[in-house]
């Protein structure tokens, strides 16, 4: 399936420079499984399962055939809501093999998000477990299917055997076409769909491997939900598999669970959001009996890592820190393994590729040379439009992606991420749309008006604060009431308001017509 194309001149350049190699993800797995040096190595390990590359390939072949028999076709979209378990890798590569397109839903998504995503993607199937903890995911999938007519199949990830069949031949996918849909952490409620091609995504994985030193000896631990672009590809599970290394998966990032896996699988590398990096650092500083000596590199990103924390991570965990500033739309920046200490602990790194192009602009699109400014980018792994584009304003007229991030560049070219407009709250790496939450709150009968802003939080970096004007001042809505209301509207748990402040009016902005954006900015300053 085609994606919004890069200009021909860039296509020619990326190919001529060997950045786009004409390889597919299925080619990669087939080659690893066919290589006697790699076939018997451990590809994937989780709490209960361990698979060699040959075994992974076998499971993938059987599931791919089973999906075809079920009626899933090439280019069909399949929504995944799978926790971190070995089957994740089997399902994704089976879809790659038979040419259907995974859509990377998160286990934390609820009805509201899933209906939006499945509807926008016209998904034909949902793959999810029966339950995760107290949540009945089967019932969730059923209610999505009842609302989205394209959804014809509900597949239980814990019973893939019942779908599998004897392997068959499949047509090879076109490396320049869409491989899957990633989800944006965008400023609208329902995530936008990000079409990534085999060519562009594989390049980002291969280049990430170079920058992060991933080899066949790497054991990468995914503790963050693996659907996220960060643990998927920076360098993530796909980086480890590309290199013929090992992917370890845990469903919990808690030290007691994740460190048991570090010890058992000999984990060498992992990726964490700042709140988890803090938890790991403080737990290690307090003293631990777990042996973390195999761990060499910890990547931290998704939200700004405070310098104070960045300085403690390396010593506490006995690792080299790499900061990573990335986005599912493309551009990924890393600090380098041989960067001086102060660059690693106080910047968010620089673009991984020389072919990444950057510019900083004012709100009106004027170029600023020294910043701070809004970051715009184009390059060999940055998209030029969302799929079924609902937000052309995210792209400049010449196709550059408007990241929305305000950054400054150091004289050496490293990024200092300063924040972004008030429309999106970065809650420790999980993004919350102020606009979506406001809309949900406005639907509550006790709420006359609401504006959602970020407030600083030591652990998460930012939390959501809803300023609410009550419909009846005698009966102001409380935090538990509003949280319950938003939860029942089917929103993911991380989007519920953290703080509610009841006020009798919004501050004056001094401008005739007051935009919510201006109000958010004003309230955020208080
Ligand atoms: C400040 N803000 C950051 C950082 C991301 C690797 C790592 C992260 C993501 C990711 C990713 C930040 N400091 N170090 O896809 O491959 C904020 C920015 C950015 C947005 C993207 C990867 N690292 N951010 O977080 O698509 O605002 O990707 O535009 O979820 O997160 O969010 P997302």
From TrEMBL:
A Pfam family matched in the record: AMP-binding
Gene3D superfamilies according to UniProt: 3.30.300.30, 3.40.50.980, Luciferase, Domain 3
GO molecular function: medium-chain fatty acid-CoA ligase activity
The keyword Ligase appears for this protein: yes
SUPFAM superfamilies: Acetyl-CoA synthetase-like
Start and end residues of each AMP-binding enzyme C-terminal domain: 437-513
UniProt superkingdom: Bacteria
Biological processes, Gene Ontology terms: fatty acid metabolic process
Keywords linked to the UniProt accession: Ligase
Domain AMP-dependent synthetase/ligase, first and last residues per copy: 39-387
Family: Belongs to the ATP-dependent AMP-binding enzyme family.
Protein name: Putative 2,3-dihydroxybenzoate-AMP ligase
């Amino acid at each position: 399936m085609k994606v919004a194309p890069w200009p021909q001149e860039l296509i020619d350049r990326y190919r001529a420079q060997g950045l786009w190699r004409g390889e597919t993800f299925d080619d990669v797995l087939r080659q690893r499984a066919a290589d006697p040096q790699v076939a018997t190595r451990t590809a994937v390990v989780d709490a209960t399962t361990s698979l060699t590359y040959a075994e992974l390939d076998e499971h993938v072949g059987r599931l791919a055939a089973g999906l075809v028999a079920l009626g899933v076709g090439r280019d069909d979209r399949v929504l995944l809501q799978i926790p971190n378990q070995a089957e994740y890798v089997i399902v994704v590569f089976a879809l790659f093999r038979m040419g259907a397109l995974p859509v990377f839903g998160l286990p934390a998504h609820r009805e509201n998000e899933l209906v939006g995503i499945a509807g926008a993607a016209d998904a034909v199937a949902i793959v999810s477990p029966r339950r995760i903890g107290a949540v009945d995911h089967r019932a969730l999938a059923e209610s999505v299917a009842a609302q989205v007519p394209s959804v014809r199949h509900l597949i239980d990830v814990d019973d893939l055997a019942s779908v599998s069949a004897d392997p068959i031949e499949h047509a090879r996918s076109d490396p320049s076409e869409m491989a899957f849909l990633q989800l944006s952490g965008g400023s609208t409620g329902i995530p936008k769909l990000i079409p990534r091609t085999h060519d562009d995504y594989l390049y980002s994985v291969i280049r990430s491997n170079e920058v992060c030193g991933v080899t066949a000896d790497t054991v990468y631990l995914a503790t963050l939900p693996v659907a996220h672009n960060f643990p998927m590809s920076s360098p993530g599970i796909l980086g480890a598999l590309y290199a013929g290394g090992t992917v370890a998966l845990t469903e919990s990032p808690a030290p007691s669970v994740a460190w048991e896996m570090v010890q058992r699988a000999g984990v060498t590398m992992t990726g964490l959001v700042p709140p988890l990096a803090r938890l790991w650092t403080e737990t290690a500083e307090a003293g631990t009996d777990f042996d973390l000596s195999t761990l060499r590199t910890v990547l931290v990103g998704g939200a700004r890592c405070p310098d104070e924390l960045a300085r403690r991570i390396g010593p506490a965990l006995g690792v080299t820190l790499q900061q990573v500033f990335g986005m599912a739309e493309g551009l990924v920046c890393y600090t380098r393994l041989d960067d001086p200490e102060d660059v690693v602990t106080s910047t968010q790194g620089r673009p991984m590729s020389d072919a990444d192009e950057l510019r900083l602009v004012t709100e009106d699109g004027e170029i600023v040379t020294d910043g701070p400014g809004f970051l715009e980018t184009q390059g060999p792994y940055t998209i030029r439009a969302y799929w079924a584009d609902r937000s052309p304003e995210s792209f400049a007229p010449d196709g550059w992606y408007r990241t929305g991030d305000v950054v400054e560049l150091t004289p050496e070219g490293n990024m200092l991420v300063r924040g972004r407009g008030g429309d999106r709250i970065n809650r420790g790496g999980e993004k919350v749309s102020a606009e979506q939450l406001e809309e949900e709150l406005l639907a509550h009968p006790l709420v006359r008006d609401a504006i959602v802003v970020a407030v600083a939080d030591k652990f998460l970096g930012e939390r959501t604060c809803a300023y609410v004007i009550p419909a009846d001042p005698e009966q102001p809505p409380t935090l538990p009431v509003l949280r319950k209301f938003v939860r029942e509207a089917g929103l993911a748990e991380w989007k519920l308001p953290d703080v509610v402040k009841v006020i009798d009016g919004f501050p004056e902005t001094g401008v005739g017509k007051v935009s919510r954006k201006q109000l958010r900015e004003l309230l955020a300053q208080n």
